Structure prediction request, 185 residues.
Amino acid sequence: MNADDYLAKATNGKLSPKEIKDLSEAIQNETGDVYTLLLALGRAEAFQHQAVVEKFLVYPDNPMMARLALQILCKYWDRGQNYLEHIKGAADGFTWDDEDDVRLMAISCLGYVFTQNKKVDLLRSLYEMWKDEAADRMVRESSYLAMGEALGYSPSQLPPASRHFDVNKDIDHELIRKVEKLLTQ
Prediction:
């Protein structure tokens, strides 16, 4: 079975235990389209293969693989709290993450994990990234969106992630006031 077939079956929840095992082995051997195979493993919710996904959390040869591993563990499998120190480090940026692929996912994960544990330091990190006018625009935008997610805003209440927005003007000032209030408590 090729990577696209695995992905289609995983997306529809139709991978057998043997197929999941074969998929995991192909990823471990880095055989074929490993990115698509890893995505399929994530969508299959094959939690027993968590170590296979973890292997890619630090993957300087292909930051998009590290981004996907973080996305799977945090967003798909809801295990971000188990990787909080890694997420914090990734949100600060890795030298090998030239295009901030991993960093932007980690910023999003900070907001997601805050919804679970309500640790104010996570919200403070997002707020500080958003306030940093010297930071890259994508980092500031991602931080704002993650703060929105952290406070329970729906995607329709936030600027679409598919376009750039002015992080000083195209924002909900009430969201910022709510964040600032939480940070002073």
User: Anything to note?
Assistant: Residues 101-117 form the longest helix (17 residues). The mean pLDDT is 94. Residues 1-52 form one domain. The chain has two domains: 1-52, 56-184.
